[in-house]
Amino acid sequence: EAQVTQNPRYLITVTGKKLTVTCSQNMNHEYMSWYRQDPGLGLRQIYYSMNVEVTDKGDVPEGYKVSRKEKRNFPLILESPSPNQTSLYFCASSSSTGGWTEAFFGQGTRLTVV
Amino acid sequence: DQQVKQNSPSLSVQEGRISILNCDYTNSMFDYFLWYKKYPAEGPTFLISISSIKDKNEDGRFTVFLNKSAKHLSLHIVPSQPGDSAVYFCAASDAGNTGKLIFGQGTTLQVKP
User: Fold this and answer.
1) Would you say A106 and A89 are in contact if contact means Cβ atoms under 8 Å apart?
2) Which of B45, B77, B79, B84 is nearest to B63 (CA)?
3) By CA distance, what is B48's nearest residue in A?
4) Cα distance from N-terminal residue to C-terminal residue, chain A
5) Residue B73, beta-bridge partner list
6) Which helix H or strand E contains B10, and what residues bound it?
7) Greatest extent of chain A over all pairs of C-alpha atoms, in Å
8) What H or E segment, with its residue span, contains residue A105?
9) pLDDT at residue A94 in the model
10) Cα gap A75→A55, rounded to integer Å
């Protein structure tokens, strides 16, 4: 089954404690991206990657890091989480031929930073 | 600076009637527009899209209309069904920058039986 898998689904952490949210896709997609969803703001792009070792900043990259060492994985790293990073996070992937039209999203990770 | 705006946070319609969800954008470089649907506890799923060279695209009960001069698009659902109750996100992209997909704030649609 084609899917994008994020882990964990729920996470409560304390300010400053480094964490990683994993994202994996099994569709051999070139494009991967991270979004955060906040009330009244919709989905905002954090980082995106158009292929292995190619990453770029989205609209709200501050406080986040990503890496794309393998095609299937695109982890999101919060080196020193702060309460304003409490949000619902989504990973997405799509093929280069389909562009973002055919983006598949993961089920989301709800992060709370206290 | 919100480049894609959905000014109605919520919409309630009766089953069988038409649902119209609206979206406005400010960036004239956007040339591809998409609608995504999101149920609670799930990720968004692609619904329908339209290229800027068209003014209408239809897929079953779903039709998207694009008015480039007004920088406005709308999603029509006819007839609306209770299973259509979800959050709908409008999104836009600039084909020259394929990594960027800009989303609106979302509209929560409730279809009452």
Assistant:
1) no
2) B77
3) A101
4) 36
5) B23, B66
6) strand B10-14
7) 41
8) strand A104-105
9) 86
10) 12
Per-residue pLDDT tens for B36-61?
999 998 999 999 999 999 999 999 99
Distance of CA A111 to the CA centre of its chain: 12
Distance, first Cα to last Cα, chain B: 38
Q: Are B44 and B37 in contact (CB under 8 A)?
A: yes
Whether B101 contacts chain A with CB within 8 A: yes
Distance of CA A91 to the CA centre of its chain: 4
Q: Measuring CA to CA, which residue among B105, B70, B86 is closest to residue B38? A: B86
pLDDT score at B31 = 87
pLDDT < 50 stretches in chain A: none
The widest CA-to-CA distance across chain B, in whole angstroms, is 43
pLDDT at residue A102, rounded to an integer: 72
What pLDDT does B2 receive? 79
Tally Cβ neighbours within 10 Å of residue A32. 27
Partners of B91 on chain A (C-beta within 8 Å) are 43, 100
Which of B103, B107, B108 to mutate: most A Cβ within 10 Å? B103
CB B21 within 8 A of CB B86: no
pLDDT of residue A1: 84
State whether residue A62 sits within 8 Å of chain B by CB: no
Residue B97 has pLDDT above 60, yes or no: no
* Residue B44 φ/ψ, nearest 5 degrees: -60, 150
d(CA A77, CA A81): 9
Closest chain A residue by Cα to residue B99? A48
